[in-house]
């Protein structure tokens, strides 16, 4: 999942820094653009923590120094940690070892080589963290030391819980100073400071962009639980899995007693996000071997993915309406977006593949008569695999389609405009002359939207150059990243939707110099000029129905530099004319949108 998300980092960065440019058309003081920039930074924050997590994985020593300095963790033989000298034992009496010697002996029994560090702080009980790529340390705090002196078995269960993280290598992404835990801690405060306050001020001063900004606010607000869902699901899965390891080692009763004595994690309300509530942990620890508990734990991740999709749909609906779409169109667009997400998002396919392969990694010895570390019923795994499979099957069914017209194809107020002239009930004109009803026919092709930028105008040497020469044989490219998306006219959602459709598209540069894509609605582009490593192309396509005509214009600049990845810059404009005759009344409406994108391509063999 981390690798899948990392492949989307460039496009996310481009989208984040491109948000807000369209609001400048409505707000000369640029207050709306400032607020939208704040919202963009808020959306960028989870990406920052993800990058910090990657750095933490590849820099464990740096993280170790930070953790031990921040939490005051010291080795047991440090002068500040050496316990008071004990009385000299009587002849024949065996001296009782200090608690840290017993702790180290216990850790070496289950995980040889694990180092112990002690702290006098009282906010935590025990945590695991890496000291190097292969080394691990367990930090023990004052509450666990007290528990060790009063209930050693419960304290051992706490240590076994930390060793359960160690068995899966989770100390590299969880534990002390984990960027994911930090994300959960700071996210609500960032939301209040960078979203609520600027938007409130925007409404107070009566800014013209408030309604448009509110749509962006809705998307950001719903992105908060979307981001936290997967992080919390991963942290909860790790904690419940580590509890299961401890319960199998010392028994569920001992672990339950430890959980009740020490509510691990911070005492604040946000601690329940990165550590499951104690009642939930006790329920799973008491029923660790039941099929019901195993199934819930196995379905935790795909259920979080499904909840993330539902939240995205729930947030997109009011955003579309606020941006001017009708209720019917917004509903159809949201369903179509959900369909596209299920079919194109690799997370669902990766989840299904992981669930299908997991029995081979963890349960094959159980079926063959052995005992793996965590035996799980084959029936549980079959049910767990059925969940994402059914979701993907529903997503692949053609239950809905994207509206043929633009989402905001009506007038600026969301309604179609009626033509002048009101016929009488008898079909005659106002002066009594009998006239025939207008014929039911498609409108004429819409004109090209004025004021569009052009790549040829940006390059003075382009006009009047030599005739384009053919390409050197067919070449195939695939969109690796959508580095920037800019809305020239229309809504930001439409521009982002175009970027989503071009993400992963396959482009073919044919021998005759034309460029085609496997994405619907993209016309074939013909070369108009070739100069060194740059090729200029243009194309046009018109689609007609009984009541509409939609024309798409595209200009492109393909740069094939041997020292850099191929780049495709695109300017796209679409204009739609609609005409309908109802009760001898002619209704017409026109709309247009334009976007500018920059794509990074990768050539396929």
**In total, how many beta strands?**
12
Figure out the total of helices: 19
Uncertain runs are: 19-29, 363-374, 404-435
Report the major sheet.
Answer: 9 strands, antiparallel
Mean model confidence by pLDDT: 76
Query: Which class best fits the helix and strand makeup?
Result: alpha+beta
Kindly report how far apart the N and C termini lie: 27 Å
Q: Which band does the percent of strand residues land in?
A: 15-25%
Can you give the helix content as a percent range? 40-55%
Outline the fold blueprint.
Blueprint: H1 2-6, H2 9-18, H3 31-58, H4 60-71, H5 99-110, E1 115-118, E2 126-130, E3 136-140, H6 142-150, H7 152-167, H8 179-204, H9 210-250, H10 252-261, H11 271-274, H12 278-286, H13 291-298, H14 300-322, H15 327-344, H16 346-367, H17 378-396, E4 417-418, H18 455-458, E5 475-489, H19 492-502, E6 506-509, E7 515-517, E8 526-531, E9 534-544, E10 548-559, E11 567-582, E12 585-604
Parallel strand pairs: 1-3
Antiparallel strand pairs: 2-3, 4-12, 5-6, 5-12, 6-7, 8-9, 9-10, 10-11, 11-12
Helix pairs in contact: 2-3, 3-8, 3-9, 5-7, 6-7, 7-9, 7-10, 8-9, 9-10, 9-12, 9-14, 10-12, 13-17, 14-15, 15-17, 16-17
Task: Give structural notes.
It is a single chain. The chain is of the alpha+beta class. It folds into 4 domains: 169 residues, no CATH class; 75 residues, no CATH class; 98 residues, no CATH class; 156 residues, Beta Barrel (Porin). Strands 4, 5, 6, 7, 8, 9, 10, 11 and 12 form a 9-stranded antiparallel sheet that branches. Strands 1-3-2 form a 3-stranded mixed sheet, sandwiched between helices. The longest helix has 41 residues. The protein is elongated and about 115 Å long. The relative contact order is 0.08. About 9% of the residues have low confidence.
């Amino acid at each position: 999942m981390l690798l899948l998300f990392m492949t989307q980092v460039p496009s996310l960065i481009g989208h984040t820094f491109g948000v807000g440019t369209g609001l400048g058309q409505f707000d000369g003081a640029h207050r709306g653009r400032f607020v939208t920039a704040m919202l963009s930074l808020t959306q960028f924050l989870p990406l920052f923590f993800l990058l910090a997590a990657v750095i933490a994985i590849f820099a464990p020593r740096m993280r170790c120094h930070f953790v031990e300095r921040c939490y005051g963790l010291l080795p047991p033989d440090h002068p500040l940690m050496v316990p008071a000298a004990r009385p000299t034992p009587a002849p024949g009496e065996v001296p009782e070892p200090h608690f840290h010697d017993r702790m180290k002996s216990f850790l070496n029994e289950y995980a040889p080589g694990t180092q112990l560090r002690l702290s006098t702080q009282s906010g935590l009980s025990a945590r695991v963290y890496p000291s190097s790529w292969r080394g691990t340390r367990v930090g023990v705090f004052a509450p666990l030391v007290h528990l060790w002196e009063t209930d050693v078995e419960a304290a051992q269960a706490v240590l076994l819980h930390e060793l359960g993280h160690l068995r899966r290598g989770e100390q590299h992404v969880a534990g002390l100073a984990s960027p994911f835990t930090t994300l959960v801690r700071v996210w609500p405060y960032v939301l209040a400071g960078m979203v609520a306050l600027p938007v409130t001020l925007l409404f107070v001063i009566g800014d013209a962009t408030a309604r448009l900004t509110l749509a962006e606010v809705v998307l950001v607000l719903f992105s908060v639980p979307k981001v936290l869902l997967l992080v919390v699901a991963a942290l909860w899965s790790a904690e419940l899995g580590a509890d299961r390891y401890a319960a199998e080692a010392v028994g569920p009763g001992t672990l339950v007693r430890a959980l009740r004595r020490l509510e691990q994690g911070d005492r604040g309300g946000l601690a329940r996000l990165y550590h499951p509530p104690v009642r939930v942990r006790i329920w799973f620890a008491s029923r660790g071997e039941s099929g019901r508990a195993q199934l819930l734990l196995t379905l935790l991740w795909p259920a979080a993915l499904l909840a993330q999709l539902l939240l995205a749909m729930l947030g997109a609906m009011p955003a579309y309406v606020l941006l001017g779409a009708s209720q019917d169109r917004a509903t159809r667009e949201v369903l179509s977006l959900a369909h596209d997400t299920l079919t194109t998002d690799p997370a669902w396919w990766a989840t299904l593949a992981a669930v299908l392969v997991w029995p081979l990694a963890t349960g094959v010895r159980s079926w063959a008569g052995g005992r793996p570390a965590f035996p799980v019923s084959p029936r549980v795994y079959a049910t767990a695999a059925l969940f994402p499979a059914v979701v993907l099957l529903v997503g692949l069914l053609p239950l809905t389609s994207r509206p043929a017209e633009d989402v905001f194809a009506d007038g600026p107020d969301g309604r179609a405009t009626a033509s002048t002239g009101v016929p009488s009930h008898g079909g005659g004109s106002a002066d009594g002359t009998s006239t025939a009803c207008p014929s039911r026919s498609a409108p004429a092709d819409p004109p090209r939207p004025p004021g569009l930028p052009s790549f040829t105008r940006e390059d003075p040497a382009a006009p009047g150059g030599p005739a384009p020469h053919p390409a050197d044989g067919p070449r195939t490219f695939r969109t690796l990243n959508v580095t920037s998306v800019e809305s020239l006219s229309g809504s930001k959602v439409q521009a982002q939707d175009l970027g989503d459709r071009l993400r992963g598209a396959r482009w073919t540069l044919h021998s005759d110099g034309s460029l085609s894509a496997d994405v619907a609605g993209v016309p074939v582009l013909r070369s108009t000029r070739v100069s060194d490593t740059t090729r200029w192309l243009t194309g046009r396509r018109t689609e007609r129905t009984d009541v509409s005509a939609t024309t798409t214009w595209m200009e492109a600049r393909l740069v094939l530099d041997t020292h850099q990845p191929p780049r495709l810059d695109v300017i796209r404009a679409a204009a739609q004319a609609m005409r309908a005759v109802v009760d001898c009344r002619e209704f017409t409406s026109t709309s247009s949108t334009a976007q500018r994108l920059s794509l990074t391509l990768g050539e396929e063999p």
